[in-house]
Amino acid sequence: MEFKARVLEHTKGTWTIYPGLCKGCGLCMAKCPKGAISWSEVLGVYGTPAVESDDKCIACGICQMVCPDCAIYVEKKK
After folding, report:
1. What gap in Å lies between CA 26 and CA 4, rounded to an integer?
2. Are 36 and 60 in contact (CB under 8 A)?
3. Helix or strand or coil: residue 9?
4. Roughly how many angstroms between the first and final C-alpha of the chain, as a whole number?
5. Three-class SS state of 29
6. Out of 30, 59, 61, 76, which residue is the most buried by the measure of CB atoms under 10 Å away?
7. 13 - beta bridge partners?
8. Residues contacting residue 75 through CB under 8 Å, at least 6 positions apart
9. For 31-68, how does the pLDDT look when each residue is reduced to its tens digit (9 = 90+)?
């Protein structure tokens, strides 16, 4: 299990996932307005796939707000 953060740099911002906290519930995927979140090869806390984002991410932070495990952190570029 990977407890360190995976930081993904995108055009609009930085998207960070903590696989050790992600249980793979998919709420972030369901709420993403751009469909920028998908399943990752990295496994989460229960051995289920964690998530990752792609460059369609607009750094709106909705995924961070709906994550019940605080596994996502989004920082918009200025």
Report:
1. 20
2. no
3. strand
4. 33
5. helix
6. 59
7. 76
8. 13, 14, 16, 59
9. 999 999 999 999 999 999 999 999 999 999 999 999 99
